[in-house]
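With this grant's support, we have settled on a layout for protein records. One resulting record is reproduced below.
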Amino acid sequence: MRWTCLNTRSFSSTTFFKQTHLFSLLSSTINTTKFEFHGIQSYCYHSTNKSAIGLLHAKAVKSGSFQNLSVVNYILSLYVKSQYLDYAQKAFDEIPDRDVRTWTILMSGYARIGASRMVLDLFREMQIEGVLPNQYTLSSVLKCCSSVSDLQPGKGIHGWILRNGINLDVVLENSILDVYVKCGAFDHAKKLFELMVEKDAVSWNIMVGAYLHVGDMEKSLNMFRSLPYKEVSSWNTIIDGLMQNGYERTGLELLYEMVKNGPAFNKVTFSIALVLVSSLYIMELGRQIHGRILRLGLQKDGFVRTSLIDMYCKCGKMEKASMIFRKMPLNGVRTQNSKITFNESMTEIVSWSSMVSGYVRNGEYEEAMKTFISMVWEQVEVDKFTTTSIVSACANAGNLELGRQIHAYVLKVGHTIDVHLSSSLIDMYAKCGCWDDAWTTFKQTVNLNVVLWTSMITGCALHGQGRQAVCLFEQMMSEGIKPNEVTFVGVLIACSHAGLLEEGCKYFRLMKEVYGIKPGFEHFTCMVDLYGRAGHLDKAKDFIHENGISHLSGVWRSFLSSCRLHKNVEMGKWVSETLLQLEPLDAGAYILLSNMCATSDSWEEAAKVRSLMQKRGVNKVPGQSWIQLKNQVHTFVMGDRSHPQDRDIYSYLDELIGTLKGIGYSSDVKLVTQDVEEEQREVLLGYHSEKLAIAYGIISTTSEIPIRIMKNLRVCTDCHSFIKYTTQLLHREIIVRDIHRFHHFKHGQCSCGDYW
């Protein structure tokens, strides 16, 4: 008896090491008594340690107690409680005679982690073995039918209950009601609800949610108002449903009403309120809710913390979101014997995902990529949403290397590439200059929808493949896929960049007259650009006035670019004056007008424009070019001497320009907008940022590797000519992405056909 008492006490007060050591010593000297066994049970019940449960399991097998169904079910429940479902399944398979409790314990474990299909499969096996379900079994199975929207087994269970005359309590009736609602059998749900003798808050919430789901806001609100009692879950249901259906303001009014007359907020209410705040961008209210959360001490709850992070991300407050995120416990901090629960795992994944998507949403692509790399390093599961977000970041940052690694990672872990991820991959490869990879990804995707077609058409436009974009657009329509407003933007850009005036006008009419799409700002801008690039400046002017879009500064900006392209200074002055009335601080308008004056040798006019620009405090955006080599980005500006290899770069560039002149290249000195001698103009042109970046790329890579350059402005005609001659001389492929499009230079030719 002395050993027994000591053993029981140790399992409630000492560390696991001491407990197992004592138990081993005890086992080696005397047989385990019934009381000792219950002491071990008591410890295991409060433990999530696999070794402790395994020890109890082994002892039960050794002593023969595993033949006792009560003991077996208890051990099985310990495995399930601790979420060691693989061990639970093995133990379950070893049990010769399983009762309804045995089946129910395992099914409830799978149900908790969302393995609904596994639960339904087990339920079918249970029926085959002739084991009758109890109410707990039925409740678990019905919840799984709801989660996977599988009506057939749900209806079957309901029929079985009615045929066997089983008394339905309100919990079981609610489970059946939920199946009908989630599976879209709304008439069945209404009939069952009317027949229910007893209805609790859950019953009413299910029906309120059902009307919200079908978009009947009036009926759902009336039902909510008529509730005999409004629990916190009822308020949560109606506010969340209104928000999901686009009635955020109505939801906000109810939230204020809840504060005044309703029950206290719970964790779910706070989460819904934060989502509501982020959708309406009411930052001040978000701060107030955060303050209430802190006062109630709920900030450590994973569900609430994730909602806070998401709210701050969507409101553009990434520093605040990052501060909350950094306080979150990481996987690596957990002890070896601790086990992360399913809910903890989900909140951790969502928190990381929110941070990555938040950085992408706010244009902080480098931070997004750093966070993603840390996420992988911490071995947090990467879901499809996060993958899609980070691929978008790679596209916008032009980070081809990381984009390729992520694509390989997706294939390695076995993620299904759905239409959203496939669209992001196409966009990433297109924006990083890998047109062949974008095309390959498109062809490998099954079940092409309008999003994927649009991504590919837009990619064609970006790479100057106007004819191919038109062919894709026609093929898409022939396959019965209806283009949307974004698709038309893509095909109009493609027509504009390729000079396909007739096709562009046809598609603009098609959009309005056949598909009934009202033209937006981007469509109008594309049409002005289409007319302007083709040299039809008067038609562009008429188009602006005929469509009543003279208030849109973007169309005038596009028009002004065309005036400069075709050297029409007089019209350029008029367009510039109009644009400056709309956007007096737009640097582009001043620069374009000044450059037009300079190229026509009107130096006094150019000086006046520059002076006015300076007087109004308008700053020019400096031209920058950058190249990424070995995961490092090298940035250059005109005449830049800050690079560690600047001597090598300038020396090679001077030598290259000299060689190129021998095969026909000559500097276009008219592009220099400063009133200096011709020799000085050549010097200024020679050190444009893209030339410096290309020179560095040539001396840093082998001839087989394409040189990829990014530029924040439009590439000038002199640099365009320089790059063509460079590829002809060195037999190198050079890909330049400027502010509007990609230029693929190879064998002395450019993909744009000198039309840009």
